[in-house]
Write a structure and sequence with these properties.
The complex is a heterodimer of chains A (237) and B (367). With 237 residues, chain A is mainly alpha-helical. Chain A has helices at residues 18-42, 58-86, 101-115, 130-155, 161-164, 169-172, 176-208, 212-218, 227-236, and strands at 10-14, 220-224. Chain B has 367 residues and is α/β, with parallel strands linked by helices. The chains are: A mainly alpha (237), B alpha/beta (367). Bound molecules: protoporphyrin IX containing FE (HEM) and iron/sulfur cluster.
Chain lengths: 237, 367
């Protein structure tokens, strides 16, 4: 690991702006709700009761919550895409698309340092590292797939114009059944992502001591003094 | 068209049907088509003034269930009007002619009524081995189709076979069974989906063409909107049970007797576009869900490959027969957690070294 300096030798860097933090937690919450309700839609639990059907509506309510969360999730996602163009350098869209050689180099470095643990080379990034960014790029794609398939399915259940804008996706995917199947399978990608994501945040907090966990609440990271200048110099040459 | 030929109404009268029967038929079909009352008047007028529509009905890779459904239409005049009076200049399964005589009839019809006849196709067309898997009178079905579709006024694909390939197109589709819209070279094909389609739906589409001289409004999959714009689930009488979360859990349970929703038994109603819940079958007697059986989605493309029928979702592709998406997902989650556990152990071993080092080199340690 990198040689650490003491706490008072850290400087604070404002990394995540308020909109990014809001986005993050709204996203997390809506995905949690979507996974729980989505799972119930796919596999409804057997709640037996002897009342007439007209007195119950729990499954309808579960679906309703899913759809409300879906709208929040979708527009939050669209908002984040917008912020990728107007936000600070840590939020910029070009973090997420590895079109520079240096980004791919860092992907390899991070793999070696953090995942395989065969190297101790320091990683320069202060915001997302390149591997994390690449992963988020794929999660954005997954958001897109989930939104397209979700609203595509929703088009058949809604009179509103908005979901109808997505109806074209269903025939392309081979009908409602396949669309539903893809939508269901992608839920598992979200769950697996969440497990790894949360673990890696804890891991980085533990190992790097830059306060990643709280950075998504307060916005600040604690970076070793001099690191920012060093990185700036490197970028210049 | 041919002034000498009697109109549909005249033919019906000759057969002994009353004016009242005739009007009932027109309103019945008009209602099925979703017409307003002025539209129904148009149907009446058309059937009174127009003579029968020349029709060629071709049978390729199929089981004749579409024809069977059709001739069992609930309204007696449907079969009369369509089969006796309108159609059947040529149809392999029902015509009297055979052999060369039959082939001559076909040739006659398409020459005499060039650009006027309606082509109905039941069954898919095999494209592998130059179409050798389905030949009639020494010609491949593809060749016959090309010849007959060239001058047709409209093309109707009956059923799932002609619209989507049905069972013979199921994986691995050994004969290369192909739905006809893919072979129609840009011509509009009306896909009347279902295995088989509902008789009233079939009759409705034909009457629409006869009455209005144009094809009915179609959706993006070529299906008439009047019959295929909502899901079986949307018109299912068990829907309140679905919303209330009351599901049949197994075939023989109390819930099945109570008529709860069949969602967990694999009902495809939420994914299937058809009018079964409204028009129903066999004179409106029942439809599969009413008889306690989940919808199998027979009016959707690839429904044979989306099995098993009695599970909510298909098996996960490439993972053996009993693997559902959820099982694969749980497996993936377990592998992830195991990987994380291993990673965490290694991290701690290394971190420990670092803590020790930190303790040695700084007095103001943060560990
Ligand atoms: C993180 C995002 C999401 C997850 C994890 C998720 C998960 C799920 C799951 C597992 C199902 C059950 C599928 C089945 O087996 O039948 C489902 C159903 C559904 N989801 Fe989502 N979903 C997400 C986002 C969305 C979005 C953005 C929409 C857009 C409206 C949406 C709309 C739907 C609809 C319409 C259904 C079918 C409900 C029904 O059968 O009535 N979902 N979702
Ligand atoms: S039985 Fe099928 S179509 Fe009817 S409400 Fe239940 S899931 Fe929907």
């Amino acid at each position: 690991m990198k040689e650490k300096k003491e706490a008072e030798h850290n400087e604070t860097v404002y990394v995540w702006q308020l909109p990014v933090r809001f986005y993050h937690w709204i996203n997390a919450l809506s995905i949690l709700v979507l996974c729980v309700t989505g799972f119930l839609i796919g596999y409804p639990i057997a709640l037996q009761n002897s009342a007439e059907a007209s007195f119950g509506y729990w499954f309808g309510t579960v679906r309703f919550i899913h759809f409300v969360a879906a709208f929040i999730f979708f527009f939050n996602f669209v908002y984040r895409l917008y912020w990728g163009f107007v936000g600070n350098k840590y939020a910029k869209w070009d973090n997420f698309i590895p079109y520079r050689k240096s980004q791919w180099q860092e992907v390899l470095d991070v793999l070696k340092v953090d995942i395989l643990m065969v190297s101790k080379k320091p990683i320069d990034s202060v915001g997302h590292n390149a591997l994390a960014s690449l992963t988020y790029f794929f999660t954005f794609l997954a958001f897109l797939v989930q939104s397209l398939t979700g609203f595509g399915l929703y088009a058949a259940m809604s009179k509103s114009f908005f979901p109808k804008l997505f109806a074209w996706i269903v025939p392309i995917l081979g009908g409602d059944f396949n669309t539903r199947m893809i939508h269901h399978i992608f839920m598992w990608l979200f769950i697996v992502f969440a497990i790894i994501h949360i673990y890696l945040v804890f891991y980085h907090d533990y190992v790097e001591r830059r306060g990643v966990t709280s950075s998504m609440i307060g916005g600040w990271k604690f970076i070793e003094k001099g690191h920012m200048e060093e990185v700036k110099k490197k970028v210049k040459v | 068209m041919n002034e000498t030929r009697p109109t549909v109404y005249e033919e019906l009268q000759a057969k002994g049907h009353s004016r009242r029967d005739f009007m009932k038929f027109c309103t019945f079909i008009g209602a099925a088509l979703g017409l307003e009352s002025t539209g129904i008047a148009q149907v009446v007028k058309a059937l009174e003034t127009k003579s029968r529509l020349p029709v060629v009905w071709l049978h390729f890779q199929e089981c004749t269930c579409c024809s069977e459904s059709f001739i069992r239409s609930s309204h007696p005049l449907v079969a009369d009007v369509i089969l006796d009076k309108i159609s059947l200049d040529y149809t392999e399964t029902l015509m009297a002619a055979a052999g060369h005589q039959a082939e001559a009839t076909l040739k006659n019809t398409i020459e005499k009524y060039k650009g006027q006849y309606v082509l109905l196709v039941e069954g898919s067309i095999p494209t592998k081995e130059d179409g050798a898997y389905c030949c009639i009178g020494g010609k491949s079905s593809y060749d016959i189709f090309k010849e007959v579709s060239k001058d047709a006024k409209a093309i109707i694909a009956w059923g799932n076979c002609a619209s989507a390939g049905c069972v013979q197109a199921a994986n691995p589709n050994p004969t290369g069974a192909t739905p006809i819209y893919k072979l129609a070279e840009g011509k509009t094909v009306i896909n009347v989906q279902g295995c088989p389609p509902i008789a009233e739906v079939m009759a409705g589409v034909i009457v629409h063409i006869l009455a209005f001289d144009r094809i009915p409004q179609l959706d993006s999959l070529g299906r008439p909107k009047a019959f295929y714009s909502s899901r079986v689930h949307d018109t299912c009488y068990r829907r309140p049970n679905y919303d209330a979360g009351l599901f049949v859990e197994s075939w023989d349970d109390e819930n099945a007797k109570k008529g709860y929703c069949l969602y967990k038994m694999g009902c495809r109603g939420p994914n299937t576009y058809n009018s079964c819940g409204v028009i129903k079958w066999n004179n409106g007697v029942s439809f599969p869900i009413q008889s306690g059986h989940p919808c199998i989605g027979c009016s959707e493309a690839n429904f044979w490959d989306n099995g098993p029928f009695y599970k909510h979702l298909a098996n996960f592709p490439g993972f053996g027969i009993e693997s559902t998406a959820d099982k694969v997902g749980i497996g993936l989650g377990a592998v992830t957690v195991a990987g994380i556990a291993a990673h965490a152990v290694v991290t701690n071993i290394r971190k420990r070294k670092e803590i020790m080092k930190g303790l040695r080199t700084t007095d103001n340690n943060i560990a």
